[in-house]
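@here heads up, posting the sequence + SMILES for the adenosine-5'-triphosphate run so it's all in one place. Ping me if the SMILES looks off, I pulled it from an old spreadsheet.
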Amino acid sequence: MTGEILFQADNISKTFGGLKAVDNVSFALRAGIITALVGPNGAGKTTLFNAMTGHLVPDRGAVTFLGESILGLPHWKVARLGIGRTFQDLKLFSHMTVLENVTTATESGSWLWQTGGRAAQVERSARIERALDATQLQRRRDTRAVDLSYAERKFLSIARIMASGARLWLLDEPASGLDRSSYDRFLTVLRNEVRAGVTICIIEHNLDIVQSISDRIAFLDQGRLLAEGEPKTILSDPALAAIYFGERAP
Amino acid sequence: MATYIINLAILIGINAILAVTLNFILGYAGIFSLAHAIFFGIGAYTAAVAAMKFGADFAAATAAGMLVSGVISLALALPALRVRGEYFVAASLGLQMLALTVFSEWKSVTGGIGGLIGIPPPRLFGFDVSDPVLFLALTLACLGVILIAIRALVRSSFGRSLKAIRDDETAASALGKNVALLKTLAVMVSSSFAAVAGSLFAFFLSFINVESFVLEVSVQVIAMVIIGGTGTLLGPVIGAAIVLLLPALLTYLPYLPPTEIGSIQQMIYGLAMVLLMIFRPSGLWGYGSSQDRKRAAP
Ligand SMILES: Nc1ncnc2c1ncn2[C@@H]1O[C@H](COP(=O)(O)OP(=O)(O)OP(=O)(O)O)[C@@H](O)[C@H]1O
Ligand SMILES: [Mg+2]
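bot reply: prediction finished. Complex structure tokens:
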């Protein structure tokens, strides 16, 4: 079920002032599966993503993608290697239309005009249409992002990463606040993408979603990686459950 | 009377070029510069020197102005755009003050405070285009070409990247966009096009000095963009027309003592900007209403 190691973090730490937001964490993401990153609020999940994507540089540790170190690379270079991410606060391009949001995600590779000519253009539009179809945003394509509903905005952030062609997706609470039917649709999108070769690491609070979608779980608490393994092992561990639900042992 | 109207139209055209080019960075890329008058000035001085010392015609003098302006904009953009937005505002203010000092002190080139006098009449392809009607046509042609170029840029992937950066820099870089490079290019394009306005201005007046390139001019161009509508193609043109026509119209109002026109004008601009911010934050020509902005808040 698990393939080659796509991404690896070794002993990474990040402190803010005196706070150890990420404390000596090592973990790997294997190709072709969904890894869930779970943990209580403030556990350091988002900070770990930031350290993985070059958004911030860890104080210590190593980060490798496909066997090459990406430590210290700027955000945009990491993105061009094929690591895409969504944000907890979405960070949509609010005053651009849905179509522009998705289109610009396909156009990172050059400056004034896109290279590759007609064939590349056709390939990019195919990616755009596929992303809009999968997220059911077709009929909203000319609507500005600010005018979308909550669920539509969440789907737009997925459409954007889909269109970007990233092969590793880091999703920061993409399903939070979605109603039942939206998140079923959302899970379908993720499953289809994984089948098509994408690798996903998803931060998610809802353990039902985690259980139904993930192949591995990494459990983070107070900056430390407490456990990593098969969902049934992690989810049935009473000690982890106690931490997760806030019944911390004295 | 006819000459007066033609001259006013030429000035509106020149200011429209300034507003349109400032809007390219302010409205599309979200870069707030207080130094636009400097690139206007660099275009004017370079064109004037090219014409006076080297006998350049309008096209050659303008090209020289664009080149010098574009290169000097790099000096501002390269260090300043690597940091966050507020620092760029501060850096551009610094450049505005520094460059103005250079304009007034570098006497051998800029003529110092007195400026450059006796800029030869503009020639284009061997013809004299100093006749007001011809010069107006030339101004409008320059404005037209710049509008077409900016429209093409805005609709290209470059324009989409700039808008993405304006809306969210972090998300743009997470999609692989080299934010610093794209912003630098945008500033360079904007500054070299602003130099065209400078060249027109120098040939139009046949005389220039530092007063035309002071901070107030930078601020006035910002007002044109905001009044007309940031991030729209024609809004800044309309903004430039309104800002320049207002004083002209005020002089025709009876009962207004001429000495007070200046301050009344300032009050009208101020009031207009405040009302626009409240009721039409995207400008007269801009999209949407204040409701949109409210919904945009998280
Ligand atoms: N830029 C920052 N400066 C200072 N402290 C920070 C910064 N970013 C995060 N922190 C702190 O680091 C800790 C971990 O934050 P992080 O956002 O990574 O948690 P999280 O697991 O994503 O939580 P949540 O589930 O609430 O999103 C928190 O205590 C947070 O306040
Ligand atoms: Mg978080």
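MO: The pocket of magnesium ion (ligand 2) is lined by residues A 45-46, 88, 172 (CB under 6 Å).
MO: One more: Chain A touches chain B through 35 residues (CB under 8 Å).
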